Amino acid sequence: MKHLKFSVLPGDGIGPEVMEVALDVLASATKDAGYALDYSTHDVGGIAIDRHGKALPEATVKACEEADAILFGSVGGPKWENLPPAEQPERAALLPLRKHFSLFANIRPGLLYPELVAASPLKTERIPDGIDVVCIRELTGGIYFGQPKETRELEDGDVEALDTMIYKRTEIERIAEIAAVAAKSRGNRVCSVDKANVLTTSVLWRKTVTEYFKKHYPEIELSHMYVDNAAMQLARDPNQFDVILTENMFGDILSDEMGIICGSLGMLCSASLGLGKNRQDLPFGLYEPAGGTAPDIAGKGIANPCAQILSGALMLRYSFGLNDLATRIETAVRKTVEQGVRTGDIAFGNPSVNTREMADAIQKNLK
Ligand code: IPM
Ligand code: MN
After folding, report:
1. Alpha-carbon distance 323 to 312, whole Å?
2. What pLDDT sits at residue 263?
3. Residue 330 pLDDT greater than 90, yes or no
4. Disulfide-capable partner of 286 in 70, 71, 91, 324 (CB 3.0 to 4.6 Å)?
5. 70 - beta bridge partners?
6. CA 307 to CA 114: how far, in whole Å?
7. Which residues contact residue 64 at a Cβ distance below 8 angstroms, ignoring those fewer than 6 apart?
C-alpha cells in the first residue's frame, strides 16, 4: 500500500458535508489501485475563528506543511460577514495560504457536460455541445498582493486608498509555462488576457507571454485579448477559447463568469499549484471547489458533492501523479450525471438525490 499524504480542510457551510463523501469516493477509487489515503483534518475559516480566534491557525498551516497537498472545502458564511474585510474567513484564510505555499497557478476548468446545457444561463443554441474551456489564473501576484496597500488621510481632510499592481517577468513566465502545458494536453490554443491598452503591467505581460511562447512553444496558437472584450466574448461564444491565461484580478473575475456560464457552481473544481515540489517530486497544491459555502442549503445534506470530488481528482493528477485514477473519477462523475442521477442544483425540477446518494452513485460508476 502506498500512502497519499494530504491535509483536509473542510471549512464552513456545505464544506464538511461534501468533503465527507468526497473522501469516501477518493478512498474507494484509490484502494483498488493499491493506495491508502493518509490524511488529517484541520480547522480553517469561520470555524477556526470560532475555535481558535483566527481563520488560519498556525497548527493548520503546520499540518499542511507536513503534507503533500491540501484538499480544501470552502470558507465563510453570514456569521462572520460583519468582521473587518481583512479578518473575514475567505480573505484571511485563502490569501495567506496561497502566499505561504507560493500557489501561483490557479487552474479552473470550465466544463459543462452536454447533458447539463440547460443549467447554463446562455442560450442552448450557443453551446449545443456544452462548454470546455480552462482558465489559468496567476494567483500570488498583481494587485491582490502588491505593496504598498493602504488607506491614508490627507492634509485637506480627504482620504485615499491605494493598491499596487505589480508583476515581474519571471512571475509571468512561470504562469505562461503552466498555460502552455495545459494547452498541449487540450486544443493547443492559448488566449492571453490583459489590458495592455491602459496598464503598464499588462504591456509587460503581453510582451513576456509573446516572447515566451515564441521561444519555447512556437507550435501553440497564441492570441491576445483585452479583458473587457474577453468578458464579452465568454458570454457570446465561450468555446472560441481553449486555454485562457491571465493575471490575478482578471482571472478572479473571468473565472466567476466562466463558472456561471457553466451552469451549477456545484460542478466546478479547481487546483492551485505551488512553486516547490512535494515529497513525491510533484507540485504541492491546494484543491478546492469553486462554489463556496452555500449557507442557504448547509446542513441539509443536499449539496452537490461533484465539485469536491472532482477537486480530489485534480489532487490525484497533479500532486500525486495519478492521472489514470483522476480520469477514472472524472469519468464516473460524468457517467452518473448522464444516467440522470442529479442533486437539486442540476435536476431542473426532476426528482433529485441527496449528497450521499450522489456520491454513492459515483462510487458505483468507478467500477
Ligand atoms: C477566489 C475568491 C478569492 C479570490 C477571495 C475569497 C479572496 O474569490 O478564489 O476566486 O479573490 O481569489
Ligand atoms: Mn473569486
Report:
1. 12
2. 87
3. yes
4. 70
5. 7, 286
6. 17
7. 7, 9, 42, 70, 97, 101
CA distance 217 to 179: 11
- Decide whether any atom of ligand 1 lies within 6 Å of the 138 Cβ: no
Q: Which of 322, 324, 319 is nearest to 280 (CA)?
A: 319
pTM (two decimals): 0.96
The pLDDT mean for the chain works out to 97
Q: Decide if 326 contacts 317 (C-beta within 8 A).
A: yes
Give the number of other Cβ atoms within 10 Å of residue 24's Cβ. 18
Residue nearest to atom 10 of ligand 1 (CA): 252
Determine if ligand 1 sits within 6 Å of the CB of residue 95: yes
Q: Is the dihedral of CA 330, 111, 202, 216 positive or negative?
A: positive
Nearest CA to ligand 1 atom 2: 252
What are the catalytic residues?
Answer: 144, 195, 228, 252, 256
What was the pLDDT predicted at 36?
A: 97
Mean per-residue pLDDT for 72-91?
96
Residue bearing cell 433529485: 352
Name the band, by pLDDT with cuts 50, 70 and 90, for residue 154: very high
pLDDT at 133 over 90: yes
Checking if the pLDDT of 160 tops 90, the result is yes
- What domains, with CATH codes, occur in the chain? 1-106+264-367 (3.40.718.10), 121-261 (3.40.718.10)
Q: Does the structure show a pLDDT above 90 at 125? A: yes
For the Cβ of 166 lying below 6 angstroms from any atom of ligand 1, the answer is no
The three three-digit cell numbers of residue 165, written as one number: 499592481
